[in-house]
Amino acid sequence: MIIRKCELSDITSVFELIKKELGYPKITESDVRKRFELMSLRENYNVLVAEIDGKVCGFISTVKEISLEVDGEFLRVIGLAVRSEYQRNGIGAALLRAVEKTADEHKYGVITLSSNFKRPEAHKFYENQGYEKTSFTFKKYF
User: Fold this and answer.
1) Fewer beta carbons under 10 A from the terminal one: N or C of the chain?
2) pLDDT band at residue 71 using 50, 70 and 90 as cut-offs
3) Residue 69: domain span
């Protein structure tokens, strides 16, 4: 397995992961491509992919943020998915470890993430990786 920076040529695979594994049926490949292009222009975003035998089988995206409550900068995981046929093989854990390595190297205070209530298996996964449930996420759509 190789973990590397996501490239524009990976977007079809990332789109499929978002649509199928994360359950966003209304999203289009064009949406993902545009967002990735915007993220690529900003230093605080990062997208990594996991590749096995030339096939993208997972991705993780993060944003570096600053908060008044947290000492210094921190990372927020804003997307993580692994193809169902590759799950439970350490790919998600490896993607998280890559992000954790970045956080450690840059002395970020914490890594945060949200996970939908509908994904209890993902919650177990994050807890097994050492992440704690500390809050709820609230959203208001416009």
Assistant:
1) C
2) confident
3) 2-128
Q: pLDDT digits over 87-117, tens only? A: 999 999 999 999 999 999 999 989 999 988 8
Total number of domains constituting the chain: 1
Give 73's DSSP letter. E
Strand partners, 2: 51
Rounded to 5°, the CA angle 137-39-30 comes to: 95
Residue 76 lies in a domain: yes
